[in-house]
Amino acid sequence: MIACAETWRDNGEILASPMGTVPGIGARLAKHTFSPDLLLTDGEALLVALDGTPEGWLPYRRHLAMVTGGRRHVMMGASQIDRFGNQNISCVGDWRQPSRQLLGVRGAPVNTLNNPTSYWIPRHSPRVFVDRVDMVCGVGYDSAAAAGPSARRYHRIPRVVTGLAVLDFDTADHSMRLAALHPGVTAAQVQEATGFALTVPRDVPYTREPSAEELRLIREVIDPDGLRDREVGS
Description:
By secondary structure, the protein is α/β, with parallel strands linked by helices.
C-alpha cells in the first residue's frame, strides 16, 4: 500500500483512478498525507472527500475530458505484462481461439495513451510477467514508439507494484527495471518470478516502511475492516 501510495506522490491536482482494494487504499493514503491535492471519485459521477462527502460533479463526459488531456493517473491490473509494459487483460493464447477469455480490452488503450498508467499486480509470477503478451490491451513503450508521436504525447508508465517489488522503465530502451525490493525479498527472487531478464541496478533500495501515522490511518481510518487482507495476505 505504501508503494502504491508513492505512485501518486507529487502528482498535484489530478484525478487518481485506482482499480482494486490495495491501490484504492494507496490513493487515499496519499491524499491523507503527502498528496492532498489529489482528486478522488466515487466511480460514478461525483468527486468525493476522504470521508466520502461529495465535493464536486464528475459526469462521464468530463471524466473522459480529463483522461484525454492527461489529467488522470490510473493504476490498473494486468493478467500479463511484458518487458516494455504492454499489458493484456483480454485473453490468453491465440486471440482467434484463446484458451482463456478474460475481461476484454476495456479502456486500457485509452488509459495508456492519454494519461499516466501504473499497474498493481499482487501475485508476481512468470505467468503474468511474460516475454510477450498474447494481446496488447494497455500500450507499452515499444508499441507507443511504433505508433508515432501522437501516441507518445501523454504515454507514461510510472511504475509497476507487485507483491515482491516495485518496477519501472527508467532505462535507455524503456525496458523494465527493478526499482525497489519489498523488505525481505531478494533481487534473485524477483528475477525468478519474472519471465524475462530485468535490468537490475547494482544497489537496489528497499520500499520504505510505513510510518506509525500511516499504519494508524490504514488500520483505523481508511480500511478498518481489513479488506486489504483479501488481496494480499499477511
